[in-house]
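Researcher: Let's run the pair from yesterday's discussion. Sequence first, then tokens, for each.
Model: Starting with the first of the pair.
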Amino acid sequence: MKKEKALEEIHTRHSLICQCALRDTATRAVWGNGNADADIVFIGEAPGKKEDQEGIPFVGSAGKFLNEMLASIALRREDIYITNTVKYRPPNNRDPLPQEKLDCRAWLIDEISLINPLLIIPLGRHALEYFLPNARISEVHGQLFETTLSDFGKRAIVPLYHPAAALYNGGLRATLKEDFLLIPKFLATLRKSA
């Protein structure tokens, strides 16, 4: 329970100090959600309309698809932690700007540091930029990378397409489902070496 309390304190503090300009147009900050002791952290790009209304990440159609894929590998939302690179909804769901991502970066760093997951799964290119800045999602999706980053330390990363992209592009849907099935194998490997 101590970790959950510490996570809540991180969210409360950053909600007060975050200088992201998006806070002026969003309804609320959308905190990360899930298990503070999770082995897997999923990181999306930014909250959408439904997330902005409810204050929980991935509750819209992309979230429903994500829940289906979690079920396909015998996981539930309670087993994982999920957050976004940007904690406020960009107007009209536009892509977050570089400065907006930078303004929310310390918040994400604190979340990752506290949870200390075995595996980080960036969903889509915006989240991927944080961990593998020169990589293209189309070339690296579904692969395990172990890297050391100045802000995040040594991390295991498996980039995946964003569920929203898969909803709009039928071809990506099958790819994302296939990539998802690799997660238990990667996790088992990481647990052995931990």
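Model: Moving on to the second of the pair.
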Amino acid sequence: MLAANACDRYLSIIEGSQDPESEANKAQGIAAEDIKPVACVHGLVYSFDTKGYEHNIPGHSIWVQSRCYNRDFIEKYDIHCPTGKNSRQGEDYPFIRKLDYAIAHAQDWQVLQVPYEQGGDCQCTAY
């Protein structure tokens, strides 16, 4: 389930990454001509273990893909879920594998991560 502010947070990160005047780009020394379009934004998942204990899991997820995808990137590299018989279980695995391969080989796109602050309020984008 997406967090209530997930879309706003994704949009804020995407818009900020495209702005040469953004603090993040200035801090990283990224010049305007080096700004790349965003292929994907990774979010954070808030999960529970089998005993009900809460865990923040930065950088990856369990059974949930908390990502925001650029439709132009998906279409350019023909990334899609399988269709037909036996395509309803684990359909995200081929999609994610194709996506990760395309990202690894597409030098003109970038992948962003939702910032995670240890000890602060939960900054997760999905539960």
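Researcher: Give me one sentence on the second I can quote.
Model: DSSP finds four helices and five strands in the chain.
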